[in-house]
Amino acid sequence: MSTNQTQIKTCPGCGAKLPDVALSICPYCVTPLGITPKADGKESPYAARITRILAHDTLAEAMAWTPAEGPEFVRGGQLVFRGKLVFVIGAILSGACILRPFVDGSFVFDPLNLLFVIGIAFISGGTFLIRQGKGVRTAATSKEMLRRPGVIVDRRSEITLQGMGGGTTYFFEIEFEGGLRGEFTWPGRGINTEPYTSNLPGVAFTRGVELVYFKHIRV
Fold it and tell me: Residue 60's pLDDT is what?
């Protein structure tokens, strides 16, 4: 389907900065951007499948379902867990130093005791990790999750190298009702999770430009 590729930098509806690709809808607020199929008299080849999705008896159940959050939300949870673990270790070390004088009967507490200093450092580090993790989780869920029936019409990928490792980010172009299209990112989940395929019908769960999940509906 040929499109008018006039690129719009910001959404006229919500003012959000848009990705550097030609989109027909804002991925944040679903405002149409005026990039529509040319009037060549041809209907989108995916229109019939989208119509069948809209009429499918499992659509209501799929739309009401809530998927697990993406990798950034999981990373935030891991940071919170590590922070709590570090905080508890620090509390045990510093607490033991505070209670020791009462146990041995000296009643003299040395605030410069090495273990006490290490314990305080662990408490501070744990508090930092907890706050950082909560911030990551808040940022990951700051945008509303949208649920929209559609078909994945194309995909591409980019590999990013970081230190000794790296990661793959997939970009899925999805067509929705009315011929509206948008491109959404999906961070790779590792070798145990296959990325979605092209020509896949179902319901797209998105937060901004991130594709959180695509629930397949057979039509």
Answer: 94
CA 217/CA 29 separation, integer angstroms:
24
Q: How far is CA 61 from the centre of its chain?
A: 22
- Region 124-152: what's the mean pLDDT? 94
CB 9 within 8 A of CB 165: no
Q: What are phi and psi of 65, to 5 degrees?
A: -75, 150
How many Cβ atoms sit within 10 Å of the Cβ of residue 19? 15
Most confident of the following: 34-48, 79-93, 111-125? 79-93
pLDDT digits (tens, 9 = 90+) for 143-152: 889 999 999 9
Phi, psi of 165 (to 5 degrees): -130, -150
> Which residues are CB-neighbours of 1 under 8 A, at least 6 positions away?
37, 42, 44, 45, 179
Instruction: Using alpha carbons only, give the angle 54, 199, 171 rounded to the nearest 5 degrees.
Output: 105
Q: What is d(CA 213, CA 63) in angstroms, rounded to the nearest whole number?
A: 12
- How confident is the model at residue 114, as a pLDDT? 83
End-to-end distance of the chain based on CA atoms, in angstroms? 21
What stretches of the chain adopt beta strand conformation (E)? Answer: 145-162, 165-176, 181-187, 200-207, 210-216
- Return the pLDDT at 111: 66
C-alpha pair distances (Å), 55 with each of 75, 76, 173:
37, 38, 22
Taking phi over 0 as left and psi of -120 to 50 as alpha, with beta for the rest, 143 belongs to beta
